[in-house]
Amino acid sequence: MNTNFSTYLKKLGIFALFTAAITANAQENYITLEKAKKAALQYSHDIKNGNLRIEKANAQKQEALANYFPTVEALGGTVYAFNNFIDPITLLGIPEIDNVYLASATASEVVFAGGKVRNANKLAEVQVSANQIRAEQSVDSVILTTEKKYWQLVQLQEQQKVITAAKTYFAELLKQQNDLLDAGLIAKNQLLQVKVNQSKILLKESKLSNMRKLALLDLALYTGLDYDTTTVAIDTLHQIVPPELKYDHTVNVAENKNYRLLDEQIEASKLQTKMAEANQLPQISVGVNASKYGTFNVGLDSDIQPLAFGLVRIPISAWWGKEKQQIKQRKIEERIAINQLKKGQDQITVGITKSWYDLLDAYKQIEYAEDNLEYAEENLEVQRDNYNSGLNNLSDLLDAQRLQQEAETELVTAFANYEIKETVYLYRNNQLDAPTIEELSEVEKE
């Protein structure tokens, strides 16, 4: 079995030179896979929203952290009466009073709340971690989608090369048929057979051209790059290293981001249960207050009165009321989260394993497609020689050409399919070469 693809690559030499010429003369009309991925990562709204969710979670974390500090508030008020509050009492030396004011400041601190404050802070940290994982998932998803769209574009470009080669073949065959017809060696219907097949090739060329433009538009819209129908994807289908030699396949479920999210969900559920249980425990708070009151115009003012206080709140009805049922609900949710983790672990294991076997099958597809192309090319050469020698008819030659063209298209499809399957495997097994959220943030700042 030929695995070096030398024959196939030689056939792509002309197109490679053509691509190089385009790159040299019009540098703006090319795109590489890395360029597409970089643009998509900077343009993606999902990634931007992921960063905003992290920022929001950090704000919630700071909000929870504020519960460790005392609550300070000030109160001020005044009342004016159109009629006196108190009429003057001359014997007691009390003047008329038609206004009063009050100024007060209080600082209080919860010193015990059953661990509710501590667990609320832990829960906020879990939310930050979960949003960071979701943001990482967005990055991986953007890379996966970009690669799929890019290789679809490359596949169409490669198929266009197959059609170009077929057009050249039919142009030569048509010239030969015209010469034979002029010499009176063939009937006109043979010339028409060639023209019919040539028309089919031209129709395929038109369809592929439109499909390539649509794929290019799809990629441009997803990455934020400018749409230009002359743009050429530089990365082409190339020799593939067998997956068994390239990857040391292991199913690493613990590093899978979906698994990590499910694990964070269990932790969040446990903390919510503890917070619900805290509603049944006493709450103790202490504080200080300073106040001053009096009137504005008669000189009846008090001195600033400081005082300290302590409060104990015992939620007795919570021991049998709705709080007890809320705890029961939270414990059920905790068990559900654990079951979801076990279910997710099995699904992730199956998904990674399936993607590995898909990758192996994709590589086999390349090997079989290459063999088929080799056989089809040999068959076409034999049929062409036999036709030129008068040993077979034109239909056999046209069938051989069709089989060769189909085999070449299948090889292109096999290459593109392998590239996509490889990306899916890396995506599911958490091995994608992806930048971190911090690295993306630094790029956006620049």
UniProtKB/TrEMBL annotation:
Provide an example Pfam family for this protein. OEP
What keywords does the record list, in alphabetical order?
Cell outer membrane, Coiled coil, Membrane, Signal, Transmembrane, Transmembrane beta strand, Transport
Cellular localization per UniProt? Cell outer membrane
Q: Which residues does UniProt assign to the signal peptide?
A: 1-26
Q: Does the keyword Ubl conjugation apply?
A: no
Coiled-coil spans are 359-386
Q: Keyword Signal, does the record have it?
A: yes
Q: Which family does it belong to?
A: Belongs to the outer membrane factor (OMF) (TC 1.B.17) family.
Protein name in the entry: TolC family protein
